Amino acid sequence: MKLRKKLVPFLVLTACLVLFCSMPVFAAELTEADVEAAVASQGKEAVTGNVFVWFLCAIAFLKVSQKIDSFLASLGINVGNTGGNMMAELLIAGRSLTGSMRSHGGSDYRKASSPGSAAVAGSFLSGGLAGAVGRQVQREAVNSATGYTEHSSIGNMLYQSSLNKGGDFANQVISNIAQGNYGQVGSIKGADAQKAFTSYMGINPGGGSSYDNVEIGGGRITGTETGSSGNRDFALYHADQYAAPTQGSYSTVQSVDGSTWYKQYAQDTVEKTPYTSGSGKVAYNESIVQKLPPAPQRKERM
Question: How far apart are CA 221 and CA 226, in angstroms?
Fold first, then answer.
């Protein structure tokens, strides 16, 4: 009878172990395409919530497995170490939330602690645990894209992967920077700025034009476009932040997030260079050069 009482729990716990060990098999079958399809059909918040539900379930399984280890050890069976104490696991789980807590601590009049905090708004735990962690990942991506941080982070890895594919996550990060406060958020410059520009504006990288000296931030995008007709400087102004240009011609374009931008190219302008003539008077040499028209007025200053 005593043997039977020990055997029944042992069989039940063994079955639980088999189920737990089989979970990685199902996880390995999950591909990036499956994740993208889930995000497209259910939305980012829903998928993120599902991920964290399974994350909490995994922690619960670890605690159950520790109890199973203890039971098997009491039967004289050697077992491996399946984890530490619950406090360590909670510290690991909460690490992604600490940045969000720091960025929203204190009074509202304080300057944002980082470009990511200024670009990605939202109170702490707004939208639940999934919302808090999702915002923190976006903040890490903004900090990386603007050069504020250079160390590797989850947000940076997701941003780089999405940027190479022109994905929605990268475009959302670029949008936050492009329309953010230049003094607090900064801008995207350097090697990644060209890819960020073509991704955000929905331009085919193999369309025949290339872009250099691109800077994105503060409601403005500037750079140099090289095409079959040569090089031309250009500037785009966010319609919600700038009035329509009053000098020079312009066109209206839209970015992938649906925002409207005023686009201007460098235009022929007469440039005068002063010099002293033989009679001692000041004269001017005139030449035609291409220059961008003056930037239109910002709406908050009107």
Answer: 16
pLDDT digits (tens, 9 = 90+) for 118-168: 888 766 556 666 777 788 889 999 999 999 988 788 889 999 999 999 999
Taken in order 189, 194, 198, 201, is the CA torsion positive or negative?
A: positive
Residue among 199, 204, 224 nearest 214 (CA): 224
H helix runs in 75-127, sequence order? 86-103, 115-119
Q: Round to whole Å and give the CA distance between 136 and 131.
A: 9
Nearest to 14 by CA among 68, 60, 82, 81: 68
The DSSP annotation for 288-300 comes to EEEEPPPPPPBGG
- DSSP structural state of residue 166: T
pTM of the model: 0.62
Question: For residue 94, which phi and psi values (nearest 5 degrees)?
Answer: -90, 0
Q: Which two tokens stand for residue 1?
A: 């009878």
| Per-residue pLDDT reduced to its tens digit, 200-214 | 999 987 778 999 999
Contacts of residue 73, defined as CB under 8 A and 6 or more positions apart, other chains included, come to 79
Query: Residue 241 contacts by C-beta under 8 Å, 6 or more apart in sequence?
Result: 179, 219, 298, 299, 300
